[in-house]
Amino acid sequence: MLGEVLGVERRRRWSDDEKLEVVLASAADGATVTQVAQRYEVTRSQIYRWRRELKQKGLWSPGHGAHFLPVDFPELAAAAPRPSRPVPVELRLANGRCLRFDSGMDGEALTRLIRAVEAA
Fold first, then answer.
1. What pLDDT score does 45 carry?
2. Which of left, alpha, beta for 8 (phi over 0: left; psi -120 to 50: alpha)?
């Protein structure tokens, strides 16, 4: 007998939230990637691949486990008046760097700046 087919291998689809849960578990104190991979029934290389993917999307930062998630408050944005003049803002990033800018800075430009600084 050459072998026996025990079942059909399934291909699971993982949402970004599920991937982030696994990646964060692998970054927890005392946890090894091997242990986490076994717990979630994935390969170690899959966890490393998800780390790169989530970091590129800006959803995971290896520094202190910080991650950025898109947030949208359309009802608040419409009701909140914009300040008459920009105010200074200081943002401390997980890698220890600090960005200073004013509140009038375009959101997309700020996002690009943060990603560039974190990638440097």
1. 93
2. beta
User: CA nearest 62: which of 99, 20, 32, 100?
Assistant: 20
User: What is the three-class DSSP state of 94?
Assistant: coil
Alpha-carbon distance 89 to 102, whole Å? 5
Q: Which residues of 14-49 are buried (b: 16+ CB within 10 A; e: fewer)?
A: eeeeebbebbebbbeeeeebeebbeebebeeebbee
33, 45 contact by CB (below 8 A): no
Per-residue pLDDT tens digits for 40-83? 989 999 999 998 898 888 877 766 555 556 677 666 555 556 65
Token couple for 57: 């999307």
This prediction's pTM: 0.46
Length of the chain: 120
